[in-house]
Structures are given as structure tokens and as C-alpha cells.
Design goal:
This protein is of the alpha+beta class. The chain contains 37 helices and 16 strands. The strands form 5 sheets. The protein has a 5-stranded antiparallel β-sheet, with no helix packed on it. A 4-stranded antiparallel β-sheet has the order 14-13-15-16. The chain has a 3-stranded antiparallel β-sheet with strand order 5-6-7, with no helix packed on it. This is RING-type E3 ubiquitin transferase.
């Protein structure tokens, strides 16, 4: 943003703005520079909510700026002047930037002596208004002593007009002239607002609202309604500007005074209802009143006085307290920390005063006891609040409608405080209701059409689709009947915009029926009327009502109710009444009959959950940037201090530069640590953490109750699952290290409940949205990375654990399998061969600073879930073949893609012309490599847990699976272990993006599988695995020797390897591979060497005619029936896994028989 002045001759475009042309001058507080074609340093950094004064003196030819009333000095001199030269205010804005101008239509916040605004103030009206206000005040502040007959002065707290004719007549004359003036913006802000602020400052907490209320009573009494409306609108807009643009002072007194006046005005019932109806959510952003802006300049905000001693907390890994050892704190650090914490407490207490006033505002807006013949404030608020949510949910492209995320965060916390207060008040007067700690949203709210969810996606898909497919479940479980014919008629009739409904028809229920008792009741004729379509225009979801039976009602039957859109609802439509459940219409049998609380509070709760999903979570993550900056500067300061200690005394030039750097880093850390204190007090305090935790528990209960409704669970909005996942992530990652989630009440229970939800619903067929399914899968994958959350998964009921593992073992085809495979890998990591590392060993050598990345977690395998997996693979004969076949298919694809990509990368690097490898291609290549490694680890886990799946000859698919496994293992070994091959060359290039590609991760995974097959298995299984491995034509013993660093014997005429060439060897990784594991590899090598020699001596030459025509690797051993074509068993068994047609003639294969040279045997198997 560049703001300043320009002449009419300036021409601006997308590249050149104010200050970039000859006769334009600008100040940019973001970059702290001034601009006039060239640029130089100038002024101070500005922040959102600051006020910039742009001053131009054409007599002196000078231009200057002020920031919040403080002069920044002369910016430009010798301006061009003369006939025909005129300067105009100008500004250049970037995307999403906004600014409010004041050319004099309102009083200047910081007037400057000797300068005038572009628009002169209404001086005559201002003088009249001040005189009339003086008369008004004089009438209120004096009274006639009936005894002595003299005037007595009264305090503002004692102002009362008790119908005295003389006083009322005098006030009527004053307001006859005063009322027209109070409609003008300048006069309201300059005269009335200042007067009311004076009353608030002079009075106490009880006296000030009474005095302001007395003034408002008189305004409503003596002014016309339209005049009061204009006056109150301008008054609230002035207060909002004053609050938003007030500078932050140490005691926050300015913000407190403006909020106290706002509270006093809203205590007036009539004024509050008007402001709610027409101003707070329509003419202005009322969420501004709930925001506490963060100071960019801590010295001006007084934080240096509040927090004289600075300190910065250590930055632990996201795994929590167990992630690494905490360095012992010195005595000096302890003193600094305690002084810093005392300063933070002082700051927090001052902020709490502001927050309490903001909560009072929301309590007034949620008041439902102020009907007084009209609508209570709470129900007006609900209508406006729902519209506010809709604008922010569906108007994302329309920037003016959006509430900034930082405002939304504060608004949510204040709303939760007010909501829980009213919830617990209701519980105090209704013992059968629930406390706020047990709050949730009943599932019927999601499908009875009482609450508008506009375009929010449901778990089961589109609402119109759900109403059609689940209409029978709605009728049987919730007594709600939706007629598709009426819905279709309503859609067609909705196109008719001209015909108006009759008065009788306008009061009829619409579009859907909810009935209690017997369903086959007479169908009223009005269901086919055009009224149905007209009423549907006001409903974004299915309208639901109770049909009135044509017979006397018993005490247990429900009466007819009417559902309207949010704008047309009344208190009875929300809270219900006799024979009317309001928002709780359509209660399923699983839900309790006793209501939780007032129905209106349930809708507020639902809106709070939606608010978190809209932008609060993203803002919480964004504010962590301050903490990250502190950590980066703290690390830089420590490194600089280490260099200072190591620097020789004689190098004074280096010492001087290091000292300067140390000073810069220290000053920046002092500034950031005070800003961090502000952020922790306003965003990451213990109270804010408790709010997010409460919201998490609300979502968990809501999902649990909705799940009990069976198929009706599909009506639940997606954002409930999103908020449950994201709020847990925020509590775990954003609020530390000052506050820990483990300190929250019921922490272990909450973790277990969330684990149960993730385990059950990540593969729930009732959830159809791709994004939400991916979110559930990713959340579960993250959940099993941490010991405390993994233990929570192990605590869920056994049947849920088994169902979760069964879903994980489903075939990988036609579903997103990468995350599923990652979950299985995390359950195994720590148990596999050489698989106990946190960071890949080769990365620790080249990037040791990356070892402490918070995303790297220590291995935490789950023996319990591994056992469930083993039981399922053993007990269900269909699970293991389908699962392992899909894993082998994906491994074949992933490794083939990886090899193809590194070939392209190698070719690009070897070209003579300068080529840049696409970073996206590098990323995809590394991803395919990581997938290959993870798939190999899953195979290792499967072989370890249930080796009989591959080695038991009695299982029909074991031989085929073992042959496929041997083929893939030999393929991987040959590609990776060949000397000076493609893989070697790409690894040695150290291309950015391919850091994870190395010999170690993939070779230890393959070694783990071979060791399990050839060393740990039973004798019969080892013999079978050995024969299959050696029978594969791709097997090379040198690949096994390569694992232990044994050089490959040079071929005839080949040059011997260079003696200084560094060779890969598992023996070089003794920190990661135990001596027992190395011994097992040596044992495997000796076994294969012996078996290979014996196989070579016993093998007989095979003619080409007897080889399989498909692979040319094995002799023909199977004949297909009825066509009679032949191949080896390995080829036909693998083919029949996915296809039943013959390789050659495409005839359907009915059976496969054994075949030997010289004749066929009688052994056969069905295809």
C-alpha cells in the first residue's frame, strides 16, 4: 500500500502506482519507505488499525506524514507548483488491502495545527449543536427545590425525568432544534459521542449505564423514529471507528471506555433491538467490537513497561514432552523466565477487562427475556448471525462481505463464553437439562430443515439426494415423510414468480410432512397447490411440519407446527411450544426426550462450530508464525554467540561484525518476545485453549449421537468432522510449549473418543465426500505417529479395532491407498529390520540440523494392532490373497515409475545444453521411491506376522504370491545394487528434492523380507522360499553380496574397481542395524551361496520349445482347458488373479491342469 498525493497528469497502471511517477509522492509503512520515482527509508512501520495523516503545504512546497498523530518528519520538499498544477489524494492498493478515508466529513482523530481538512467542518451547525447540548444537559442536571424555591445541581447518576410538565416542555423545545442536527455524521461523532463518553468516564459501572439509558429514553421520546434510527446508526458507527482505530496504550483505557459506552447503549432494550435489526450486522462489521488488535510497535503499546524483562521459551518437538530431553535451566534463565511470566500476567489481567466487556455485549445480544410485546433480542441475533455465517461461508470471493479471520477468532471465544454462561444458567433453573460440559447438537437438527446450512456439504452428499434416498429411514426413525412428487412439483412451480399465494394458503405447512402416530392419513388437497413452491423460495432445506389429524388429539400426539426460513422464524418456531418441539422436531428413538437446553442455544452452538471451520483454525495456525520467528532469531543469536566465543581476539573486524549481529538479534528477540506475550494472552491463553477443547468435545458428542441414528448420520454436515480433526491438531500443535493439552480435564478420554471416531469413519460407506474421507485418513495416519494418541487407538473397543484393521487390509485398487499403507507402516516402524531410525541415516550426515525437525517422530509400533492384522490374515482365507496381490501390484507400479523417472532425470542431466529438471518431476520421483519403500515394509510386516501366507503349501495362493514376491525383490535388488548403474549415478547427483533417495532405506527393507523368508522361517518354508528365489531367472547372488559390501568379481576383460571407491555395506550402519541382524544377513548369504551352487550342479538344460511362451524363464507346467494352450504356473496364476481369458485365443479358461513333457497329468484346478 502506497498513500500520498499526485497531480492530474499522473498515469497509473498495474505496475506503476502512487510514488512511481514524477509528480506523485507516497509513503509505504509496510516497507517503511517513501516513494517519488526513487525510494528511500522513511517513517515507521504501520499496522492494521493505524491512522495515517497526509499533510501537504503548498505555500512551502513540502509534504509530510503523521502516524497516529506523531509526525514522521518532512518527506518531500520543492514540490512542483504553479498555474494548472493541483494535487489530489491518491493511494495504490494490493489485493485484499483496504483503507477508510476521512477528508473532513467526520472529526479528524489527530488534527494538526496549521492544516485544514479538504472538507471544512459544519462550523455553524457545530456551534448550534454544542449550545443545544449545553441546554439539554442543564435541564437534566438541575431541579427546583420545592421548599426553598432554588435550583439544585444533580449528578448524572441521579438524572430522572418524572413527568414534570415544565421539564418535558423545555426538552421538547430543545429537541425540536436538536433532533435534525443529530442525524448528521459529523455532529453525532463530535457532540453526542463525546458527551456520552464523558458520562461513562465520570460514572461508575452502575451509574454510567443508567445515565446513558436516561439519555436514550429522551431521544426515543422527543425525536421522530427515523431521526432516532439515523442518530443511533451514526452513533454506533462512530463508536466502532473509535474502538477500531484507537492506539493501544498500556492500560487499554481507550478501548475500555469505548466498550463501556457500547455496553451502556445496548443495555437499553429498544435501542438494542433496533441496532440488532438494522445496524450491527447490516451497516457495520459488529465483529470489530470483539477483536483486540495486536500491536506492531511494542514500545508504543507500553509493553516495555509491562514486560521489562524478556525471555523466549524453548521450542520442543510436536511430540510433546517426550520428544527429547529438556535442557536444564540455569539460575539466571529461571529468574528471567519468572520475571517475564509476571509481566505476561499483568498484561493478561488488562486484556481480560476488555474481554469481559466484549462478553457482556454478546450476553446482551443473546438476551431472550426482553420481548416486551416484540421479538426478543436473541431471536433477532440468531437471524442475523445465520446470515453472517452464510456470507462468510459462501461469499468467499466477495471480500467486503468477509469477516477477517483475526476478528473471527476473538468473536468465537467471546461467543463461547456467553453461550456457556446462558447454558449453565438454564441448567440451574432446570435440573433435568444438561450442563455446558455435556453440550452437543442433536442429530435431528441436521435433517428436520429447521436450521439453514445453505451450501454446506453433508457427509452423505447433496441434501436433495439424501432426502430422496433416505426418505424411508426418515419416515421410520424420525416420523418425517417427504413426498418426491411434491418436491418435484415444488421445483417446477418455483419458476412462477408472478402468482401470489392466497392469504389462506400462506399459512399452510409446506413441502414435507412429519407425522406422529399412524402414517396413512388423508392427504390434504393443499399439498398440490402452488403455495408449496412459493414457500419453498424462503427455505434452503426441506420444510418440515406435523400433519394435523382430523380427530381429537390425545396428550401424547403432536400438533401441527410450521417451519420457515431463518428470516421468518419466530420464537415458537425455534423454542417450540405445546405439542411442538421446535428445533428438535423429528427426534430419533436413540435421543433422550428431555431437552438439553433452550433450543435457541443449540443453534448458537451449531453456529460456533461452523465459525471455527470457516477461518478460525487457519488463523490459529497463522499466529504460530510469531513463535516460529522467536525460535529462528533465538537460534541465530545462539550461533552468533558461539562464533563470538570461538573468534580469535586478533580478528577485531570479525568481532565487530559479530557484535553488531548479536545486538540486532537481541533487539529483535526483545521485540518479538513481547509480541509473543500479547499473542499468548489474546489467542493462546489457557482460557482460549479450554474454549477450543470444549468445542472439540462438543463435536465428538455430536458425531457420536449422529452415528447412533444409522443411515441418518449421512445428514450430518461435513464441518463437524473437520472441526473435530482440526481442533485436536490446534490443541496439540499451536498452544505449546506454554500450555499442554495433557493438562486439560478428561484428556485421555477425549483422545480415545476421537480415536474411535477416526477408526470407525475413515472407511464409513455413509461418508461419500472425497475431501472429508481424505481428511479422516490423514488424521488417522497422524494419530498413529505419536505414542499417546496411538495408545488411545489401542484403548478403543476390540471390535472397533478389528474393524479398523480389516478396512486397512482391504485391496488397494480403486481407492486412495497411499495413506492406508502409511498407517500400516507406522504400526510396524520400530519392529522391522534396521527400521528403528527417526531420520534417514544418510540425511543425518549431510543435513545434521534437520535431525530436530518437529515432523520427525520416534518409532512407536503397536503390537496389539499387529496382532489383529495377523489374526485377520490367518482366519479369513479371502483377506490375505486380495490384500497381498494389491500390495504387490502397487509395488510393481511404484518402483517401475521410479525407475522410469530417474532414467529421464539422468538423460536430462547428461545433455550438453543446460537443462533444469522440473521440481515437480523430482518430487513425484521421490514420492514413488518412498511408496516403494513403504510397500516393502508392509510386506516385511506381513511375512513376519503370518509367514504361512507365503510358505504354507496347503494354501492355494501361497506359491503364486511367493513367486511374485521373489520377482519383485530380484527386480529391486538388481536395479539398486548394480555397480555404477543408473540408481548409483542419480543418488550421487544430490539433486534437491531427491534427498530421501538412497541405498539404505530400500535395501534394508528388501533385506528384512529375505531374512524373514530364509532365516527365521521353518525348515520346509525356508527350502520352498529358497527354491522359488533361485528359480527366478533374475536372481543374482552378487546382489546379496552387495549388501555386505563384498565386491563383485570383475568379468572377463572388465577393469577392476577403483580401490578408493566407497562401497555400500550394511556393516557401516551399526548405529541402526544390530549385530544380531548383521549375523542373520551373513547366514542368509552363506545359505544362498550354498543353495545356488547345488542348484547349478543339479540343473539340466531345457530346450526352447519347453519354455513358457509368456516369460521364457520357466518350463511349461500348465495347460488351459478347454482351449489347450500352455504356459508356466506362475504366469497363469498371476493372470487369473485379474482376468479369466486365455493369453492367446481370449477364450474363457474353465480350468488349469498340470502338464509335463511327454503327457498331461490328471491334476487340475478350476479357473
Amino acid at each position: 500500500m502506497q498513500i500520498g498525493w499526485c497531480t492530474i497528469n499522473c498515469r497509473f497502471n498495474q505496475e506503476e502506482g502512487v510514488g512511481d511517477t514524477h509528480n506523485s509522492y507516497a509513503y509505504d509503512g509496510n516497507r517503511v519507505r517513501k516513494w517519488n520515482v526513487t525510494t528511500t527509508n522513511y517513517g515507521k512501520a504501520w499496522a492494521a488499525g493505524d491512522i495515517v495523516s497526509c499533510l501537504i503545504d503548498l505555500d512551502a512546497g513540502a509534504l509530510s506524514f503523521c502516524l497516529n498523530g506523531v509526525s514522521l518528519g518532512t518527506a518531500f520538499e520543492n514540490l512542483s507548483r504553479g498555474p494548472g498544477t493541483a494535487y489530489f489524494p491518491a493511494i495504490s492498493l494490493s489485493f485484499k488491502e483496504s483503507v477508510a478515508f476521512n477528508f473532513g466529513s467526520r472529526p479528524l482523530r489527530y488534527p494538526v495545527a496549521g492544516y485544514r481538512p479538504l472538507q471544512d467542518p459544519p462550523r455553524a451547525d457545530l456551534v448550534r449543536a454544542q449550545r443545544l447540548l449545553g441546554c439539554f444537559r442543564a435541564v437534566l442536571s438541575v431541579e427546583l427545590d420545592p421548599v426553598e424555591g432554588r435550583l439544585l445541581e444533580k449528578e448524572s447518576s441521579e438524572w430522572q425525568v418524572q413527568g414534570q410538565p415544565t421539564v418535558l416542555l423545555t426538552l421538547a423545545h430543545i429537541f425540536q432544534r436538536f433532533a435534525p442536527l443529530l442525524r448528521k455524521v459529523y455532529l453525532v461523532e463530535s457532540v453526542l459521542t463525546s458527551f456520552l463518553l464523558g458520562l461513562v468516564e465520570a460514572g461508575g459501572p452502575e451509574q454510567a449505564p443508567a445515565a446513558v439509558g436516561q439519555v436514550l429514553d429522551l431521544l426515543w421520546l422527543f425525536m421522530e423514529e427515523y431521526e432516532v434510527h439515523d442518530c443511533l446508526k451514526q452513533l454506533m458507527m462512530a463508536l466502532l471507528r473509535l474502538y477500531r482505530f484507537s492506539p493501544i496504550v498500556p492500560d487499554l483505557s481507550l478501548q475500555i471506555h469505548h466498550l463501556r459506552l457500547t455496553v451502556a447503549i445496548l443495555r437499553h432494550d429498544k435501542s438494542r433491538k433496533f441496532l440488532l435489526s438494522s445496524v450491527l450486522f447490516d451497516a457495520l462489521r459488529s465483529a470489530v467490537f470483539f477483536h483486540i488488535k495486536s500491536p506492531l510497535r511494542v514500545e508504543e503499546a507500553g509493553l516495555q513497561q509491562l514486560i521489562p524483562t524478556t525471555w523466549w521459551p524453548p521450542h520442543p518437538g510436536k511430540e510433546g514432552k517426550d520428544s527429547k530431553e529438556v535442557k536444564e535451566e540455569t539460575a539466571e534463565e529461571r529468574l528471567r523466565r519468572r520475571a517475564y511470566e509476571r509481566g505476561c500476567q499483568r498484561l493478561k489481567k488488562r486484556i481480560e477487562v476488555v474481554e469481559e466487556l466484549q462478553v457482556q455485549i454478546l450476553k446482551l445480544l443473546l438476551n431472550n427475556k426482553d420481548e416486551n410485546g416484540g421479538e426478543a433480542s436473541r431471536y433477532i441475533f440468531l437471524t442475523k448471525f445465520r446470515k453472517f455465517l452464510q456470507e462468510n461461508a459462501s461469499g468467499r470471493g466477495n471480500i467486503p462481505l468477509l469477516c477477517p479471520p483475526e476478528y473471527m477468532v476473538c468473536f468465537l471465544h467471546r461467543l463461547i463464553s456467553a453461550l456457556r454462561c446462558y447454558w449453565d444458567e438454564y441448567k440451574a433453573s432446570n435440573p433435568h437439562a444438561s450442563v455446558s460440559e455435556e453440550a452437543y447438537v442433536p442429530p435431528q437438527v441436521f435433517y428436520n430443515g429447521k436450521v439453514d446450512y445453505f451450501d454446506q456439504q453433508r457427509l452423505g452428499g447433496l441434501l436433495s439426494h439424501l432426502r430422496k434416498t433416505l426418505k424411508d429411514d426418515l419416515a421410520s426413525k424420525a416420523n418425517i415423510l417427504i413426498d418426491p412428487l411434491e418436491l418435484q412439483a415444488a421445483t417446477m412451480d418455483d419458476l412462477d414468480e408472478d402468482q401470489e399465494p392466497s392469504p389462506a394458503a400462506a399459512q399452510r405447512p409446506v413441502q414435507a410432512l412429519a407425522i406422529g402416530g399412524a402414517l396413512p392419513l388423508p392427504r390434504p388437497g393443499w399439498l398440490s397447490s402452488p403455495t408449496l413452491g412459493r414457500a419453498n423460495r424462503f427455505l434452503s432445506t426441506a420444510a418440515v411440519t406435523l400433519m394435523t389429524p382430523r380427530r381429537p388429539l390425545s396428550a401424547s400426539e403432536k400438533v401441527k407446527v410450521r417451519t420457515l426460513s431463518a428470516e421468518q422464524r419466530t420464537r415458537e418456531d425455534i423454542e417450540g411450544g405445546p405439542w411442538n418441539e421446535g428445533l428438535l422436531l423429528g427426534r430419533p428413538p436413540e435421543e433422550p426426550e428431555q431437552p438439553l437446553t433452550e433450543n435457541s442455544l443449540l443453534e448458537v452452538l451449531d453456529g460456533a462450530v461452523m465459525m471455527y471451520n470457516l477461518s478460525v483454525h487457519q488463523q490459529l495456525g497463522k499466529m504460530v508464525g510469531v513463535s516460529d520467528d522467536v525460535n529462528e532469531y533465538a537460534m541465530a543469536l545462539r550461533n552468533t554467540e558461539d562464533k563470538l566465543r570461538r573468534c580469535p581476539k586478533r580478528r577485531k573486524d570479525i568481532l565487530e561484525e559479530l557484535t553488531k549481529s548479536q545486538k540486532v538479534f537481541s533487539e529483535k528477540l526483545d521485540h518479538l518476545s513481547r509480541r509473543l506475550a500479547w499473542v499468548h494472552a489474546t489467542v493462546y491463553s489457557q482460557e482460549k485453549m479450554s474454549d477450543i477443547y470444549w468445542l472439540l468435545r462438543v463435536c465428538l458428542r455430536t458425531i457420536e449421537h449422529a452415528d447412533r441414528t444409522g443411515p441418518l448420520f449421512a445428514f450430518t454436515p461435513e464441518f463437524y468432522l473437520n472441526v473435530a480433526i482440526n481442533s485436536y491438531s490446534a490443541l496439540k500443535n499451536y498452544f505449546g510449549p506454554v500450555h499442554s493439552m495433557e493438562e486439560l480435564p478428561g484428556y485421555e478420554e477425549t483422545l480415545t473418543r476421537l480415536a474411535a471416531i477416526l477408526a470407525k469413519h475413515f472407511a464409513d460407506t455413509r461418508i461419500v465426500g472425497t475431501d472429508i474421507r481424505d481428511s479422516l485418513m490423514q488424521a488417522l495416519a497422524s494419530y498413529v505417529c505419536y505414542p499417546h494418541s496411538l495408545r488411545a487407538v489401542e484403548r478403543i473397543p476390540e471390535e472397533q479395532r478389528i474393524a479398523m484393521v480389516r478396512s486397512l487390509l482391504a485391496p488397494y485398487e480403486q481407492r486412495p491407498w497411499a495413506q492406508t499403507n502409511w498407517i500400516l507402516v507406522r504400526l510396524w516402524k520400530g519392529c522391522g529390520f534396521g527400521y528403528r531410525y527417526t531420520r534417514l541415516p544418510h540425511l543425518l550426515k549431510i543435513k545434521p540440523e534437520d535431525a530436530n525437525l518437529p515432523s520427525l517422530q520416534k518409532p512407536c509400533p503397536s503390537i496389539l494392532l499387529q496382532q489383529h492384522m495377523a489374526d485377520l490374515l490367518r482366519q479369513d482365507p479371502d483377506v490375505a490373497p486380495s490384500f497381498l496381490n494389491s500390495v504387490l501390484n502397487q509395488l510393481n507400479w511404484a518402483f517401475s515409475e521410479f525407475i522410469g523417472m530417474i532414467q529421464e532425470i539422468q538423460q536430462a542431466v547428461e545433455r550438453l545444453e543446460r537443462n533444469f529438471v522440473d521440481t515437480r518431476q523430482l518430487k513425484v520421483c521421490a514420492t514413488c521411491f518412498d511408496l516403494s519403500v513403504s510397500l516393502l515394509r508392509v510386506l516385511e510386516m506381513t511375512i513376519t506376522l503370518v509367514p504361512e501366507v507365503f510358505l504354507d503349501s496347503t494354501q492355494p495362493t501361497s506359491e503364486m504370491l511367493l513367486q511374485r514376491l521373489a520377482q519383485l525383490l530380484n527386480q529391486v535388488l538388481n536395479r539398486v545394487t548394480a555397480e555404477r548403474n543408473l540408481f548409483d549415478r542419480v543418488v550421487t547427483l544430490w539433486l534437491p528434492g531427491l534427498e530421501s533417495v538412497d541405498h539404505y532405506p530400500i535395501l534394508v527393507a528388501v533385506t528384512g523380507i529375505l531374512v524373514r523368508l530364509l532365516v527365521h522361517g521353518p525348515a520346509s518354508g525356508t527350502e520352498k522360499a529358497t527354491s522359488v528365489l533361485l528359480a527366478d531367472p533374475c536372481f543374482q547372488l552378487r546382489s546379496i553380496r552387495y549388501l555386505l559390501g563384498h565386491p563383485e568379481p570383475p568379468g572377463p576383460g572388465a577393469a577392476p574397481p577403483a580401490p578408493d571407491r566407497k562401497r555400500f555395506s550394511l556393516q557401516s550402519y551399526t548405529d541402526y542395524i544390530s549385530s544380531e541382524e548383521l549375523a542373520q544377513v551373513e547366514q542368509m548369504l552363506a545359505h544362498l551361496t550354498s543353495a545356488s551352487a547345488q542348484a547349478a550342479a543339479a540343473s539340466l538344460p531345457t530346450s526352447e520349445e519347453d519354455l513358457c511362451p509368456i516369460c521364457y524363464a520357466h518350463p511349461i507346467s500348465a495347460v488351459f482347458q478347454p482351449c489347450g494352450h500352455k504356459s508356466c504356473k506362475a504366469c497363469i496364476n498371476q493372470h487369473l488373479m485379474n482376468n479369466k481369458d486365455c493369453f492367446f485365443c481370449k477364450a474363457t479358461i474353465e480350468s488349469v491342469e498340470d502338464w509335463r513333457a511327454g503327457g498331461a497329468s490328471n491334476t487340475s484346478s478350476a479357473a
